[in-house]
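Revision sheet: structure tokens.
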Amino acid sequence: MMSNFDLLDRYFSNELDKSELKAFNERLKTDPQFNHEFQEIKEVKLAVKLEARKNIKSLLTDIEDSLNQEELTTNNNQTAMKRMLTVAASLILMVSVSYFVLNGSGQPSPQDVFTEYYKPYNNLNGQVRGEAIETESMSAAAYSAYDAGNYALAVENFEALVEVEKTAENYFYMGIANIEIGDYKTAVENLNTTLNNFSTFKDQSKWYLSMALLADKKVEEALTSLVGLNFSKGSFQKRSKMVLSRLGYETLETAGEGPIIIIEEEPDIDSPDGSFVDQRRVQFGELSDFNSRKLYRFHTDDPITGLQDGDIVEFIILREAKGRNGKGFAFILDKRM
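Predicted:
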């Protein structure tokens, strides 16, 4: 029989198949000791990775300070200069090796960025209660499990709760609980539901949506939420800029404008009669740049109302096309009137 340690190691290495992951989540709900071990190991893994990055950054700063303090002029002792440069080169090599071991390459993976910046959202307002006694009990069970860190049980309780009380809070916290148990696909669906059907928790939903997509290796889809937050003035603007920088997007500049060539929506956002849409809503397609004539794909979890084929849009280029017949990736800033 597999030990708890080996099982948890396989989970954090993304080696569990669907049936094993289902059994894993069931055990999180029913075995408090196993759940406690899971939470402890998760915290340790995050702390180790963050500490390693901090130490590497500190070491680089020390190297820079040492070089700045030495006045390497032609009158310096050549032996001292050679010794200093040798030490600096050795330290830089040490940092490079450490960074390679930590990340697997010079560029952090989407999962690394997720691990570095993700943390669950606190239930700051206490339990969210409904009017009926039965709903109050269901709400208390869901939020109590969430606050206790028993996220597998929280998901189960939230799933029952949203059947009778469809609110932004319930879908939002359920989405975060999904992230905590590694069910990123369902997390995206629930956070997208919050984003597209309610007026509250919008920036929060975009942030955690981007985190879930990064964890699921869907970088382009994550970029659209991050760039949207980057251009907002909300509390997540600074964090989104840092994440974009870690992903290699240091600057975002307006690239041009052009027409929408193809646009698709799932589901058709103009068809509902005002009733609640309990599923993910996305908008995607292709656009063309007036100047270069190049084609770019676009995608958003926050559909632009009324956008149609032929509409002129302003956009920024996030990724150029690779290959002769490839298409780049763009983020639509606004629709021209």
